[in-house]
Fold each of these.
Amino acid sequence: MKKVLTLLFVMSVNTISLAQTNQQPEPKPETSVTQRRIVDLPLTKRSFRPKLTLQRALKLAESYTVKEKIDLSPYYLYQAKYILYGSKDNQEPCWFFWWVNEDGALGNYVEIIVSIESGNVSRLPSM
């Protein structure tokens, strides 16, 4: 009885294994038209470097404070970052500099923006 069961088991395993070897691989789906179009698009050279560097903008902001006689000696530069300044419809890229007074009093700070496009410097009013 054991021999018969073993023989049936071996035959069923052979049949299953042979049945799976006859399967053909699934064909790869065609690339979509949009993917083909994206690949065919010409590459454009983009430069994300700003016209006015952060270092140059800081020099302009410091020379502005000297010209406007703003004493920055009790202040330290707290923050410098790239921002979009202006109304929602008319925003321009700018460098933003924020000097904070050492005493930590509220409203005792200096904020200056420098336009990346034109290099214009202006002071934002503080409290």
Note: The longest strand covers residues 75-87.
Amino acid sequence: MRHFLLVGDDRDVLGVWEAKDALHASRLLMELALSFPGCQTRMNLAQDFEAFKRLVSDYDLEDVVPEPAYA
């Protein structure tokens, strides 16, 4: 399973990141929450990006490519 993090504002996607494990995902979740105050930050586990897109179908992820967050 992969960790995907999404930052969005009023159903607009500001970015999607993919973390390599739970520790990196937790750190990134905190960083994103501080970097984008007032925005929603979501973290989900999914097999791949297509499965993640189904989990967050209320956001338009048509042209979004997740950024790797491998620190």
Note: Residues 16 and 40 are 12 Å apart (CA to CA).
